């Protein structure tokens, strides 16, 4: 195997297994990708001039904030801003080689089954087996975490795999990911991610969006008015997080009492308050880290962070609309996930989006009529 191909596989693995601890660093998401891409950059990266200018601008912005608060803690905020552009450079370079696209998909699929298999092994043995991450946070009423630090992080990883498989129309693999979230990870947050993905997929697939919305509203009203919430809850194990999610959805009082919801809502409110009422330069690096990927950008860098987050979102959506309806649904769902507790320092989030929206035309999947779908792009023969 050529050296370049070996280096590519190594970097992809650091992206798909972001929590495995190689160096003794006190972070959940390990900087393995940043280290690997810096070492392998002469072999792997080809950067466009406009992208390089933006990247240098981000570096200068981070440097100015770090000078304003010259503490080691400030440098811990850098990966959230450097990871997405570096993942973009890497993914574009990989997909520019025709022989690399099938290899990338193969590595993604095999990594998924390794994630699923290791989590299932933990479920069967009722043990974390081996400490591979900074922390192993679980308990008797929670699920297992495979190669991550906690069940919610495991569910986020499975959701990203599922979004990729939906675009590839590998619905069996996406179903396995959902089943693993329910049975192994047992994560309420993960279930919410899958609901968002399903709604986004239905939204872009429906021929009559008004009819779809009407059906959903009618179903919700019927369920809320005819089903006794307490009867449903009494039939479910009270110790499970999924039961707690159902209780939260059915009871407004439970929503106010749930610390997971209130903490995430308060973090988003803090980002909004920073944008509207706070300093235009934000709170700076090295302070409080919000449980929100996009929210952290705004909270730390103010309007600069808002511009960065908006730029990434617009770029993702613009590219996704050119790749078809399934790509758009998956991209919307992942963007929504990044409003939650998944940090932008996790390279897998931006990598899966970019692997979807930058895929070469030959890797596209046909629709039911056998034609290659591209929203917003006309055929050369039209």
Automatic annotation (TrEMBL):
Keywords from UniProt, A to Z, are: Membrane, Transmembrane, Transmembrane helix
In the UniProt record, does the keyword Ubl conjugation occur?
no
Q: Which domain of life is it from?
A: Bacteria
Q: Where are the transmembrane segments?
A: 7-23, 52-68, 74-91, 112-131, 151-167, 179-204, 210-233, 297-317, 329-359
Q: What is this protein called?
A: O-antigen ligase domain-containing protein
Q: Which organism is it from?
A: Thioclava marina
């Amino acid at each position: 195997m050529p050296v370049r191909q070996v280096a590519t596989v190594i970097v992809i693995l650091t992206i798909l297994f972001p929590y495995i601890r190689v160096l003794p660093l006190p972070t959940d998401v390990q900087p393995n990708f940043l280290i690997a891409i810096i070492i392998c950059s002469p072999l792997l990266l080809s950067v466009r001039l406009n992208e390089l200018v933006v990247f240098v601008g981000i570096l200068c912005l981070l440097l100015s904030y770090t000078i304003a608060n010259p503490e080691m803690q400030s440098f811990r905020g850098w990966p959230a801003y450097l990871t997405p552009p570096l993942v973009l450079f890497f993914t574009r370079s990989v997909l520019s080689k025709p022989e690399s696209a099938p290899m990338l998909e193969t590595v993604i699929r095999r990594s998924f089954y390794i994630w699923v298999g290791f989590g299932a092994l933990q479920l069967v043995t009722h043990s974390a087996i081996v400490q591979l991450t900074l922390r192993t946070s679980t308990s008797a009423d929670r699920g297992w975490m495979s190669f991550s630090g906690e069940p919610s992080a495991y569910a986020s990883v499975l959701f990203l795999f599922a979004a990729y498989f939906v675009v590839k129309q590998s619905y069996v693999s996406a179903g396995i990911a959902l089943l693993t979230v329910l049975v192994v990870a047992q994560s309420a947050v993960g279930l919410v991610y899958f609901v968002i993905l399903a709604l986004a997929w239905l939204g872009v697939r429906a021929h009559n969006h008004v009819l779809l919305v009407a059906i959903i509203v009618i179903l919700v009203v019927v369920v809320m008015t005819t089903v006794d919430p307490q009867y449903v809850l009494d039939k479910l194990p009270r110790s499970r997080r999924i039961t707690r999610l159902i209780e939260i959805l059915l009871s407004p009082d439970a929503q106010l009492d749930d610390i997971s919801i209130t903490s995430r809502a308060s973090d988003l409110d803090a980002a909004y308050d920073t944008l509207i009422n706070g300093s235009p330069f934000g709170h700076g690096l090295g302070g409080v880290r919000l449980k929100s990927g996009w929210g952290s950008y705004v909270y730390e860098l103010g309007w600069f962070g808002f511009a960065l987050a908006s730029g990434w979102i617009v770029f993702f959506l613009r590219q996704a609309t050119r790749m078809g309806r399934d790509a758009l649904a998956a991209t919307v769902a992942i963007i929504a996930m990044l409003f939650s507790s998944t940090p932008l320092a996790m390279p897998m989030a931006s990598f899966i989006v970019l692997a979807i929206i930058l895929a070469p035309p030959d890797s596209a999947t046909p629709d039911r009529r056998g034609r290659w779908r591209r929203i917003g792009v006309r055929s050369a023969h039209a």
